[in-house]
Amino acid sequence: MSAFRQAYEFMQTAAKAHAQWDYEVSMSIIRSRKRLLILGLMALPALLVTVAQATGMDMLGGKLAYAPAFYATDIFIVSIFIGLIAGLITGCIGAGGGFIITPALMAAGIKGILAVGTDLFHIFAKAIMGTVVHKKLGNVSGTLAAAFLVGSIIGATVGGWINMALFRANPLLSEMFISTIYAVLLGFLGFYALFDFLKSSRSAADSGGDAHGGPAGTTGIAVRLQSLNLPPMIAFDHDLVPGGRRLSGWIIACGGMIVGLLAAIMGVGGGFVTFPMFVYVFGVSSMTTVGTDILQIIFTAGYASSSYVANGYVFYTLAMGMLLGSLVGIQVGALTTKVVKGIHIRGFYAVSILAGFVNRATTLPKKLVELEYLNISRDVVGTIEFVGGIVFWVVVVIFGAWVISKFLLNMGKLRAEA
Fold it and tell me: Is 143 within a domain?
């Protein structure tokens, strides 16, 4: 298997693990009247903020912060729509919804650093509200989690500093940096997913391709890392292996640094890489990994978002809008998987990820011209960016309309199954 294929399957597994966490947390909120009441109380300030912004009042996350130049109630509606689409992708496809939020916010006119900070805060708010950690704490190794969190806090500090330093040096550099990272990530995932879709669609009739497949087993790298004796050595999985497995705390902390760095730079909470890192790189059991992943999302997203909040890079109204929209989207998307073919889901996954890639990639020429790194007509690069935006929103709207229509048309069947 090529290195590119392994990297793709690593990220696919990561996206699916994060989507599973998102689904469980969202369902935990939806099924609890108490948590729904808390959500309503949390959303109430967002509604008041929207009214205040519409009347021209200045406040944290408002006109004094780094956000769009004008606010109205439609910015709150846009955030709900973005959350809804991300939820539909997460629930229906089982992966990829978290990758769309920051690019979608940027496509809606939100500055990159504000999109990252707001996404982190949205993830933290959802984790605190709907966490199911109490059901899985028995599988968490405290020392393993502690070493990982030490590294993730360091990584989140560095990542936040990079984003904010770039923005303060030149907001255009910040926008280009975030857009480039997402363009590379989404391009890699999207083209590989499209290749897989085209390959599997030719043999779908024979194999019945499943959209939720993933890499099986682990690699030899876990064995090699566990054989390294770099004190302090941390033991885990005592219930599965006599005497437990052992891994250097330094290696675990380095993994945490990578997760924290990605969380603070991309605004995705870091959870999307923890699962494959623990299982395939560190050799930790899936049971222990799930509990540790839940803990790290709470602490990493909470810590990373706190620095963005302190510097005014979080738009509370947007965060609450995304949270409300995603709760509905995840439930509708998950139900829709019962009445659509897996091969169709896989195709939409590839197209939606590629749409995000196109959107971010087409913004780069304009940024390079504005930074005077390229000498191309501003009208040309402006047109390229405009076309990229249209492509993204057309794909997003078509996907959302397709899922919702499937849900509505099959509501009777779904109700009967329930």
Answer: no
- Show the domain range for 386: 3-138+170-214+289-417
Domain assignment present for 222: no
Q: How confident is the model at residue 111 (pLDDT cuts 50, 70, 90)?
A: confident
Q: Is the pLDDT of residue 218 over 70?
A: no
Q: Is residue 162 part of a domain?
A: no
Residue 22 placed within a domain: yes
The reported pLDDT for the residue numbered 130 is 65
Q: Cα 369 to the chain's mean position, in Å?
A: 30
pLDDT, averaged across the chain: 79
How many whole angstroms separate alpha carbon 160 and alpha carbon 264?
5
Asked whether the beta carbons of 148 and 326 are under 8 A apart, the reply is no
Residues 135-158 pLDDT 10s: 555 566 778 888 999 999 999 999
Closest to 103 measured CA to CA, from 329, 357, 279: 357
- Total of domains in the chain: 1
Q: pLDDT: is 254 or 296 the higher one?
A: 254
The model's pTM is 0.81
d(CA 149, CA 231): 18
